[in-house]
Each structure stands twice: as structure tokens, then as C-alpha cells.
Design a protein that fits this description.
The two termini are 17 Å apart. The protein contains eight helices and 16 strands. 30% of the residues lie in helices and 28% in strands.
Length: 288
């Protein structure tokens, strides 16, 4: 693992954040998770823009702006020096007083972690994962805008914990109205009669960049795809369901709440997307 922190790149074991950082104390900050493949950064400018938007949404400036963050990302990747990686780019509120008041934090802290990541074991990616519907709902726009990629992931972590305790791999999260929002850290797609659908951001889905890629790729492959509100029953009635995320990639789902989805194994549309995705990633990646 390589980490950029306090102006230089160090090994993971040497990277420390002070306990008074409000990212640690309050989950106050924003982040990006970025896929790196074949020495290319997937949709780098989109990730930087999303980070900037998240920061603005919580009233924080990126130190040095997007250009400085881009340089930090590339410097850390060059130090890591591998073809494939996962990047965790964090901008926390920084060090401040023990109260929640962010105005006591004069300077945000940037941390860039580069390492390998494995969210699901390879056999799960082949056979499909088991999903449960979480009892926890995604916070609404009136609580915490689900489009802001903030460091507040307790809701997601607890949904994942619920899934693991119920013997499943991942949690499906509904919004306050009972519509499908997303999984704990991934977007959701379903396929029925040859067409794909994924919930819109207005239903609480993060504007995922893997999701964006899948929508683009579907258009290239002449697979009809749309953003549309979905409910749990739509997933049970689907021929195929898969999840998308920078860390996990494209993940087939074989069951929801113990009910088999389609044939209970990755279906033809999922397999077509999975097959075409690596070349697509290379096309839209920025090399370093
Ligand atoms: C809550 C949530 N939804 C969806 C995603 C997928 O987004 P992306 O494809 O940009 O990684 C993530 C990624 O970490 C996430 O945290």
C-alpha cells in the first residue's frame, strides 16, 4: 500500500491521521473510490469533478483545487507502480477542536491511498452473490443527500453488517418511499426481456461512474437501457440483476432474500457487459 499524506508518499504503515481530525471524530469529509486498470485511471476527470461537487456540498474547498488533487493521485499511483489498483482519495475536514463545529478546522486534509482491493471472492463474481433487502433505508434528501459521497458510511456499513449476519453477501437498500435506491456501496441494475434498468439518482442512487460506464456500454452494444424507478418486486421479476461499483466491478446477483433471480446464475446480458467492460475501461482511462 502507498499513501500520500501531509505532502509526501509513504508506505501504508507510516501513514497516520491525528485523532482530532474531524474525519475521524465525526465522519466529516468526502471521498472517492477509483478503479485503476492496465496503468489507466478509470474516468479520472469524472471522479475529480464528483469529489469537488461533494466537497462543495459540505462547504469545503479542495486544497489547491482539482489540479492539486489530480497531481496527488498521479504521484501516488506512480509510487505504487502497478498496472491495477484501487484508489481511495479522501478529503477530510482536517484537524479541529473536539466540538462538531467545522469552522474550527482551518485546513482540509487530503489522503490518497492506493492498494489492491477484493470486495467479493472470485467464485462469488463467477456464480453471483446473494442479496438481502436491508431493514435500513437510504437517508433521504432531507437528511443527507445520497448523491454526496461523504465519509458518513454508517448507514451503509450497518446494512452490510445486516446482510453478513443473515448469511448473505450484500444488502439492497430502499429509499424512504420503498423504492430501490442501491446496494450498500454499489448501484443496482436489472434486466428484463433484453432491456436494462437502473434507479435514478432522485430515488437515492449515487451517480455511480461504473453505472455511467454500463449505460454507455449498453448503448454501444445496442442493449436498451434506462434510468427508471424500481421496487423490490421488479428485481424479483427480473431475468437478471447485477451491481456496479469501482471496488467490486460488475457483480452478478443470484438471489434476493433467498429467492432465485432468473436462472440463479449470471445471465446473458450481464455476461455481455462483463465481457465488454475491460476494453471499455481502457478506452476511457487516463494513463499515468
Ligand atoms: C453508496 C454508493 N453507491 C454506489 C457506488 C458506486 O459508484 P462508482 O461506480 O462510482 O464506484 C458507490 C461507490 O463506492 C457507493 O459508495
Amino acid at each position: 500500500m502507498k499513501v500520500w499524506i501531509d505532502g509526501k508518499v509513504v508506505d501504508g504503515a507510516q501513514a497516520h491521521v491525528p485523532v482530532t481530525d474531524h474525519g475521524f471524530l465525526y465522519g466529516d469529509g468526502v471521498f472517492e473510490g477509483i478503479r485503476v486498470a492496465g496503468r489507466g485511471v478509470y474516468r479520472m476527470e469524472d471522479h475529480l469533478r464528483r469529489l469537488e461537487t461533494s466537497a462543495r456540498a459540505i462547504g469545503m474547498e479542495l486544497p489547491g483545487g482539482v489540479d492539486a488533487i489530480r497531481e496527488i493521485l498521479l504521484e501516488t499511483l506512480r509510487a505504487y507502480d502497478r498496472d491495477d489498483a484501487y484508489v481511495r482519495l479522501i478529503v477530510s475536514r482536517g484537524e479541529g477542536a473536539l466540538g462538531v463545529d467545522p469552522t474550527t478546522c482551518p485546513r482540509p486534509r487530503v489522503v490518497c491511498i492506493v492498494d489492491a482491493i477484493r470486495i467479493f471472492p472470485p467464485e462469488k463474481l463467477c456464480d453471483g452473490i446473494e442479496l438481502i433487502t436491508s431493514s435500513l433505508r437510504r437517508p433521504g434528501f432531507d437528511v443527507l443527500d445520497p448523491g454526496v459521497k461523504s465519509m458518513n458510511y454508517l448507514n451503509n456499513a450497518l446494512a452490510k453488517l445486516e446482510a453478513r449476519r443473515r448469511g448473505a453477501d450484500e444488502a439492497l437498500m430502499l429509499n424512504g418511499e420503498g423504492r430501490v435506491a442501491e446496494a450498500s456501496v454499489a448501484n443496482v441494475f436489472c434486466a428484463r426481456e433484453g432491456a436494462l434498468a437502473t434507479p435514478p439518482s432522485s430515488d437515492g442512487a449515487l451517480g455511480g461512474l461504473t453505472r455511467k460506464g454500463v449505460l454507455e456500454l449498453a448503448a454501444e452494444l445496442d442493449i436498451p437501457a434506462e434510468e427508471r424507478s424500481l421496487v423490490r418486486v421488479d428485481l424479483l421479476a427480473a431475468d437478471e440483476v447485477f451491481l456496479t461499483g469501482s471496488g467490486a466491478g460488475i457483480v452478478p446477483v443470484k438471489s434476493l432474500d433467498g429467492e432465485s433471480i432468473g436462472a440463479g446464475r449470471p445471465g446473458p446480458l450481464t455476461l455481455r457487459i462483463l465481457e465488454a467492460f475491460p476494453a471499455y475501461v481502457q478506452r476511457v482511462a487516463t494513463s499515468f
